[in-house]
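Progress report, Aim 2. The chain analyzed during this reporting quarter is listed below.
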Amino acid sequence: MIIFHRVGGKLAKLLTASALCLSFGMTQAAEMWRAYTYNAVATVTAVKGLNAMFEDIKKQTGGQLSVRLNLGGTLPITATNITQAVADNVVQLGDDAFFVGSAPVGAVVRLPLMIRSMQEFEKAWDIEAPYLRADYAKKDVLILGRYIFPYNVLWSRKKLTSLADVSGQKIRVIAPEQADFIRMLGGIPVTLGTAEVAAAIDRGVIDGAITASSGYGYVWRDLLKYSYRLNISFIDSLVLVNQGAWDKLPADTRTKVQKVVDDHTQRITKAMAAEEDEMTRKLAVEGMVVTEPTAADIAIAEGKMAPYWKSWANGRSATTQEAMQKIHSAIGR
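Predicted structure tokens for the chain:
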């Protein structure tokens, strides 16, 4: 038998406050975010790394925050609209490598053939980052972190062992700058989300793509026959969060989540870099025609792109031009 007594005064207020605190704590414990990635295959290193990151977030926050990852193509969100989906809180967290349409300043570090090493990329990204973060802040989106793919190269089901072989081929690109590069070589750029590429190659809609071995070169190996190892650019993928959803988390939870994201994005970058050469060698053993570009081809490609690097910022925002100038000075070209 339970006996209820009327409680008044200070004790009643204390009990009410305690109940509210308990209710708030339970609400926080049940917080669930939906995440979306352009990546369409669960077995690629990036997705495995993201899932490990989300598991760690749940662990480190004591269950206050759980994040469920949706693969590319499983939600009605195109690869180029991930930033907008995060801004609109359709998903609270996004993994976005197709963001330059939403934040053009992010293309500065991706200009074809301009950045030649991961060290240069890191230096350039650090210069670009404040401009990129400010751009996203206007959209009520926060950049929690980013991971970087190894250098992206050309792949095709048709003969592709020299720069000249690009002419006439339909190559999938993920950004306008890559599209400009393909056009300069006489190719036909086609923009597709990652989830659409395999079927497009299989049906002959496209002949090939720009990606890394540890990106999707290895995943699409049964559809492709040639890998031309010209370092076109490194590609960064941003981990984005809706600002409103982020602000609702307790301060200590945000601190824990940020640390987990920092740790795991670095791990993803390192893991993909470590496996790039191994995967490429394995592809060659399995029959992929892997070709290193000649010095002459590299010189031709850079010769075509050098004027583009200088003219690219024309007509863009003052902040983009400023970032471009700083990066040019930092990397010496």
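Residues 1-28 have pLDDT under 50 and may be disordered. DSSP finds eleven helices and nine strands in the chain. These observations will guide the mutagenesis work planned for the next reporting period.
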